[in-house]
Specification:
Blueprint: H1 4-24, H2 29-46, H3 55-67, H4 72-89, H5 112-120, H6 125-137, H7 141-145, E1 152-153, E2 158-161, E3 170-173, H8 176-186, H9 205-219, H10 227-240, H11 245-252, H12 257-263, H13 268-273, H14 277-286
Antiparallel strand pairs: 1-2, 2-3
Helix pairs in contact: 1-2, 2-4, 3-4, 5-6, 5-9, 6-8, 6-10, 11-12
Length: 287
């Protein structure tokens, strides 16, 4: 008979080193939760101690996930979670585990008229300022949730994201008009969360997702609008305006330029500026 309590206790011990390593590396809360979840599922699946796990166990688990219809992006995340635990923490050197590639699709962004409509459809003053700041500064929703008044220079329209993705600080700008609006919003408060709930606690990512979705619905925008779409719209509009991709990389806080290039895809505006070779050929023939 299987001793369930003993298995749970052993699994907790197996994952304790993983948790310690993730804390030491400054991984985000969401990454830690995901990595622990997937590794816990994996240990339950194989029914072994972590020290006994091998490459074939990992392949079987991932194959089960793929067979169950789990999306390639999630399968890749699960693989990363397992490899981090067994290679980075337990030094097993497991390699060459192939999983389906993540499909590259053109990201969705809002046009400038759609952005204006979204802002005008915000349900409250606070919601309007949140939407404006997400777009104007290209912030991640997690960064906006943690933004503090003392990190913003309302006179210059600049501020700092502290311990953003990857534990990095970075400078952002939002424009002086929005900075003035935010200064009025916080009144004379010198510190604390820039946006908080009725209890004075920081807003959750879910709070912000709901208010953005509500504004999009009222604006009649048919696209699936999320806070991250506003970040992408920020990058796309900067790119359309001629801002250097290197500058956009810094503003978005990307360590890899290839990540920025996904955000600054060829937009419809850029396509409109391209002269089609057939049109050019026919124009010459008509002259």
């Amino acid at each position: 008979m299987v001793d369930t309590d003993s298995n749970i206790s052993k699994q907790s011990h197996d994952l304790s080193e993983l948790e310690t390593e993730m804390i030491l590396r400054g991984m985000s809360g969401s990454t830690k939760l995901a990595y622990c979840k997937f590794n816990s599922e994996f240990l339950s699946f194989v029914g072994k101690d972590a020290s006994q796990v091998d490459r074939s166990d990992m392949k079987k688990f991932l194959a089960t996930k793929i067979g169950a219809g789990v999306a390639p992006r999630s399968v890749n995340l699960i693989r990363s979670a397992l490899l981090f635990h067994y290679n980075e923490v337990l030094n097993k050197g497991i390699a060459n585990i192939k999983v389906p590639k993540i499909a590259r699709s053109l990201p969705i962004y809002l046009t400038k008229p759609e952005m204006a409509s979204l802002i005008n459809s915000a349900g409250s003053r606070k919601s309007r300022l949140i939407i404006k700041l997400l777009y104007s500064a290209g912030l991640r929703v997690s960064e906006l949730c943690k933004l503090r008044i003392e990190e913003i220079d309302f006179k210059s329209g600049k501020g700092y994201v502290r311990l953003g993705k990857g534990g990095k600080d970075r400078l952002f700008f939002m424009g002086k008009a929005l900075a003035y609006e935010l200064a009025e919003y916080v009144d004379h408060q010198q510190s604390g969360w820039l946006f908080s709930n009725s209890k004075g606690d920081t807003l959750t990512e879910r709070n912000i997702q709901k208010l953005v979705k509500g504004a999009a619905s009222r604006a009649g925008i048919q696209k699936q609008v999320t806070p991250h779409k506003l970040r992408h719209s920020f990058a796309t509009h900067l790119h359309d305006g001629g801002t250097s991709i290197r500058v956009i990389q810094e503003l978005l806080g990307h360590s890899n330029l290839a990540t920025t290039e996904i955000y600054t895809h060829v937009s419809s505006k850029k396509l409109d500026e391209v002269v089609n070779p057939l049109d050019e050929l026919e124009e010459k023939n008509n002259n």
